[in-house]
Specification:
Layout: H1 2-11, E1 27-34, H2 38-50, H3 52-55, E2 60-68, E3 76-82, H4 85-97, H5 99-110, E4 114-127, E5 135-143, H6 148-162, E6 171-178, E7 185-191, H7 194-206, H8 208-217, E8 221-235
Antiparallel strand pairs: 1-3, 1-4, 2-3, 2-8, 4-6, 5-7, 5-8, 6-7
Helix pairs in contact: 1-5, 2-5, 4-5, 6-8
Length: 238
């Protein structure tokens, strides 16, 4: 039990970025969990963000359910949006030292929330405001360093072409800094509902630009997993 608590504390207390991209935020930090009692998790998060310490937490936060995610053990993930590494460091300190932050981590353990994986990165392509969407398709992919610039350019060109014919909402390409033992990038497409996401996905896949894109990048990337995600609740930075 002590090990679980220490692991939770470590996951929710990632330390500061330290490379030459340090202030090119925002940074997106994903914390995937296997959750036995989702209602208890939401209640714990509500209590923390209503507390004095929660009101100082320097990130926009959202809890999402992984509706379909293949063989991944996680059922939910929490995404923190940090604008810079200073905010990330402040968040870590709050969860290490603030009584309500420590209590929050203890409540996660008591609710049966088991951490499965975590990673953090930024989005070199981030079109439209994804926070206005509630449902997403997410592709976890591996792109080797020598292909990353070419892949990003091809993806951007393809989506810009599709957008002329399809009413796209948010979409983007994220690159992982830390925690990329399973994949290096993630790609998302957003919608306001599952039916809308299905319609957008079907139109995108049938578009000639997608076929051209696939032919161009087929040897550049490996698709590790695809998932369908729905946002359950968000807590805005105060």
């Amino acid at each position: 039990m002590k090990y679980v608590f220490m692991l939770l504390a470590g996951i929710f207390s990632a330390s500061v970025l330290a490379d030459n991209h340090e202030e090119n935020g925002p940074y997106y930090a994903f914390y995937h969990l296997q959750v036995a009692n989702p209602a208890a998790l939401v209640e714990s998060m509500d209590r923390f963000w209503a507390s004095d310490c929660g009101k100082q937490y320097p990130a926009d936060v959202a809890l999402s359910q992984e509706i379909f995610n293949g063989g991944y053990p996680s059922t939910h993930f929490v995404i923190n949006t940090f604008q810079n590494s200073t905010d990330q460091a402040k968040a870590a300190e709050i969860l290490r030292s603030c009584p309500t932050g420590i209590k929050f981590l203890q409540e996660l353990q008591a609710a049966g929330a088991v951490p499965t994986t975590q990673y953090m990165g930024f989005a070199p392509i981030d079109v439209n405001d994804w926070t206005q969407d509630s449902t997403f398709s997410k592709f976890d992919i591996i792109v080797e360093p020598q292909n990353q610039a070419a892949y990003a350019a091809a993806y951007a060109e393809m989506m810009q072409t599709v957008a002329k014919d399809v009413e796209l909402r948010s979409y983007g390409l994220g690159a992982i800094y830390f925690g990329r033992d399973q994949f290096t990038h993630w790609v998302w497409t957003g919608a306001s509902s599952i039916p809308e996401l299905t319609a957008i996905s079907n139109q995108l896949l049938a578009h000639p630009a997608f076929a051209k894109f696939n032919a161009k990048v087929g040897g550049m990337r490996t698709v590790v997993n695809t998932s369908q995600v729905q946002v359950l609740k968000g807590w805005a930075k105060q």
